[in-house]
Amino acid sequence: MQTVDRSYFPLRPGQRVLDLGCGEGRHVINLAAVEQVDAVGVDLSLDDLATARTRLGEFRQMLADADTTVDIDAHASSGQATLFGVLAGDALRLPFADNSFDGVICSEVLEHIPDYRAALREIQRVLRPGGYFFASVPRAWCERICWRLSREYHQTPGGHLRIFAAPVLRGEIEQCGFECYHEHGAHALHTIYWWLQCLFWRRRERSWLVRQYHRLLVWDMMKAPWLTRRLERALNPFLGKSVAMYFRKAPIGSGASESGL
After folding, report:
1. Is 202 among the domain residues?
2. Domain range spanning residue 131?
3. What angle is formed at CA 48 by the lines to CA 191 and CA 220, rounded to 5 degrees?
4. What is the pLDDT of residues 37-75, one digit of tens each?
């Protein structure tokens, strides 16, 4: 389930991308294996990082079985092997030098971090001038319904600490020296799933309705039928579970403010 639309996140093979809060690796694996960029994932969860490593192996085997020309080491023949790595790290103290990455992805992460402004400053530090930054957070009104339906939804350890108003967050990121050049909604069909999860929170794993809707989502992601794809595209602008924002860090000498938050 890719939240980043690569048509708005222009990276070339061999460039380096950080997936901050990579979780089980849905973006970082795709970037390394399919897009052939050097991809590094950082997360606090050791279990999620172990899953990401396992999934990378499974993904490589799937590509080999399909006899495809796309491979995790696709540009090794030119003397430049694709880098893939995941490591445990703190978003407030990233173990990377200044200007280390051509792109940074931070998808569904900022709402979990107590001092998210410090995380934004770290992203600004490790991203090279002119580099691209992608951020996504839950849509405010959809998230408020989740909170009203279930306290446990956002009070579980590691849960959501806040609800972002997208225009306010966009303004805060721009104050860090970024320019927003595109925004869209994503995963509208998943909004209904999370409303159902919250409605039946304490028995969600046993709920027939939750299980059947989950089956629908898996079928949709695996088969990508035209009907659900068109339906989700139509609903994304106002019902998308995520608000996705694309930024470019000000180049050196542009005169843009980089004073931070």
Report:
1. no
2. 6-139+151-188+241-249
3. 35
4. 899 999 999 999 999 988 877 776 665 665 443 333 333
Cα angle vertex 245, ends 244, 251, to 5°? 155
User: Shortest CA distance to 105 belongs to which of 132, 72, 130?
Assistant: 132
What CATH number did the domain enclosing 155 receive?
Answer: 3.40.50.150
DSSP H helices, the chain, are 26-33, 46-65, 116-126, 140-149, 151-155, 166-175, 188-199, 208-223, 226-239
Residue whose tokens read 């093979």: 13
Residue 135 near residue 8, CB atoms below 8 Å: no
| pLDDT confidence bin for 261, thresholds 50/70/90 | low
| pTM, to two decimals | 0.89
Burial class, 100, CB count within 10 angstroms (exposed 0-12 / middle 13-18 / buried 19+): middle
Q: What does the angle CA 81 – CA 15 – CA 233 come to, to the nearest 5 degrees?
A: 115
Q: What is the pLDDT of residue 82?
A: 64
Q: Are strands 242-249 and 101-107 parallel, antiparallel or unpaired?
A: unpaired
Average pLDDT of the residues of the chain: 89
CA-nearest of 60, 6, 52, 12 to 33 is 60
Q: Which of 3-12, 185-194, 246-255 has the lowest mean pLDDT?
A: 246-255
| Maximum C-alpha span of the chain | 58
Give residue 253's pLDDT. Answer: 67
Domains of the chain: total: 1
Q: In this prediction, what percent of the chain has a pLDDT beyond 70?
A: 88
Secondary structure of residue 174 in the 3-state scheme: helix
Question: How many whole angstroms separate alpha carbon 111 and alpha carbon 105?
Answer: 14
